[in-house]
Each structure stands twice: as C-alpha cells, then as structure tokens.
C-alpha cells in the first residue's frame, strides 16, 4: 500500500497531511519524512491523520519516536482529525494520555 505525506507552513505552524496506510512497509517512509523536519521551540507541528485508513503498531512506533523528539526540542505536537478507530488505538495503548490528540472534524484545513 502507498502512503503520501504533504507539508505546508502557516507562520510558525507546520501542517502535515498523511494519507494511506501506515504499516511495516510504509512506516519507514513516514519516519524518514518526519526526521527531515527541522524542529525548534519556535514552531508547532500539527499532523492531520484524517486520511489514514489503517495503522499498525509499527506506525504507532513512528509517532512515539517523533513525539519524543518533539518533546526533547520543546515543540508542540498535535495529532488531529483521527478516525474513531485510530483514536481507539491511541487510547488502548495509553498514548492518548501522553500525546495531544484531537478526534476527527477538528483542526485546520487540509493541505
């Protein structure tokens, strides 16, 4: 399956739109794209997951690693527009207690 990642900047906010499935095959692509982002405490990052149709534990690992990196750099990271299924995945793993997550319908316009 394919994954598509797009970014755009709005002032000091970096908006990312992720589309497709995040699994063992596509997670390395997502990880690589997230690692390219230059983080500083002067920016916020908002990742829109409204078009993610599937995610497994490999995908969760990518978001955990990026969350740790963002926290280390004192960057505000928010995951937005999660489907009920993705929201539940973050909840049952306990990640929703750590990360800033907004369920679908809320957030900025798509990329």
From TrEMBL:
Keyword terms, alphabetized: Phosphoprotein
Top-level division of the source organism's lineage: Bacteria
Domain STAS: 3-111
InterPro entries: Anti-sigma_ant (IPR003658), STAS_dom (IPR002645), STAS_dom_sf (IPR036513)
Pfam family, one: STAS
Xref: PROSITE patterns: STAS
Function as written in the Swiss-Prot or TrEMBL entry: Positive regulator of sigma-B activity. Non-phosphorylated RsbV binds to RsbW, preventing its association with sigma-B. When phosphorylated, releases RsbW, which is then free to complex with and inactivate sigma-B.
Name recorded for this polypeptide: Anti-sigma factor antagonist
Species annotation: Ureibacillus galli
Lineage, top ranks: Bacteria, Bacillati, Bacillota, Bacilli, Bacillales
């Amino acid at each position: 399956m394919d994954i598509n990642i797009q970014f755009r900047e709005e002032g000091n906010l970096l908006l990312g739109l992720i589309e497709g499935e995040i699994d063992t095959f596509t997670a390395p692509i997502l990880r690589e794209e997230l690692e390219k982002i230059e983080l500083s405490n002067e920016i916020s990052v908002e990742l829109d997951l409204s078009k993610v149709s599937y995610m497994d534990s490999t995908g969760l690992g990518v978001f955990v690693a990026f969350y740790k990196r963002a926290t280390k750099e004192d960057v505000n990271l928010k995951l937005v527009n999660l489907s009920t299924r993705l929201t539940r995945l973050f909840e049952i793993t306990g990640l929703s207690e750590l990360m800033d997550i907004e369920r679908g319908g809320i957030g900025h316009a798509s990329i």
